[in-house]
Amino acid sequence: MSFRHEAGIARTPDRQPMKFDLHLHTSRHSPDSETDPFDLLRAARKAGLDGVVLTEHDYLWPEEELEELRAAEPGLVILGGIEVTGRGGDMLVYGITDASTLPRGIGWGDLVKEVHRQGGAAVAAHPNRWGQPFERVVRDSGAAIDGIEVMSNNMDDELRREAQDLLKSYPHYAQLGNSDSHAPWSVGCCCTLFDAEIRTSAELVTAIRARKCRALVNRG
Ligand SMILES: [Zn+2]
After folding, report:
1. Structure confidence by residue, pLDDT tens digits, 177-199
2. According to CATH, what is the number of the domain 18-217?
3. Is the pTM of this model over 0.90?
4. How far is the CA of 7 from the centre of ligand 1 (A)?
């Protein structure tokens, strides 16, 4: 599939945007997921993804285990992130190596400071879901988050509209589209196109911070 005519992404002739799903759960490390990690990789290929970021609840995949997955699907970029159950809401965190400093229930202000100290990026998962007063949490915590999820399998049309509205108040946020998948069928249903070459977590963080990305419903 070509993205040649998609608006909003500056293209160079020899580089296609990279398509990522950056919010995924597996049964190996998230009790509420039914997806075997290797089935997830197969589903990601089928969905036409170039890369995935595994973001279990309050758990960061060890690099040794990620290596197993990379060996099984060498054509896919496979990175580890984490979905931290913060006070006030869930936060997707990328590019960190030590999750022990991000305990469940941590306030967003401290959470984001620690993520930035480790050189990572923090993106609010499904803003406003389940009555979360997103703007109040941001204001009260002073959290300088790097972006928000604007679509996922766990965001209905209204939440997606509200996320677009939030961007008017927070135009500096990166916009991510993800699946938040807990079952193989939904892997890659929404995704993020990056106008950047991303092979490492450091490159991912740089691209998010530079907002070289946009969200889309993935039609394969
Ligand atoms: Zn999730």
Report:
1. 999 999 999 999 999 999 999 99
2. 3.20.20.140
3. yes
4. 28
Domains of the chain, by residue range, sit at 18-217
- Gap between the Cα atoms of 67 and 74, Å rounded: 10
Mean pLDDT confidence for 48-64:
98
CA 3–ligand 1 middle distance (angstroms): 27
Distance, CA 138 to ligand 1 centroid (Å)? Answer: 19
What is the 3-state composition of the chain as percent helix, strand, coil, each rounded to the nearest 5? 30, 25, 45
Phi-psi region of 119 (alpha: psi -120 to 50; beta: other; left: phi over 0): left
| Centroid of ligand 1 to alpha carbon of 73 (angstroms) | 23
Amino acid occupying residue 220: G
Q: Which of 46, 65, 61 lies closest to 97, judged by CA?
A: 61
Ligand 1 centre to CA of 88 (Å) is 15
Distance 57 CA to ligand 1 centre (A): 7
Per-residue pLDDT reduced to its tens digit, 71-96? 999 999 999 999 999 999 999 999 99
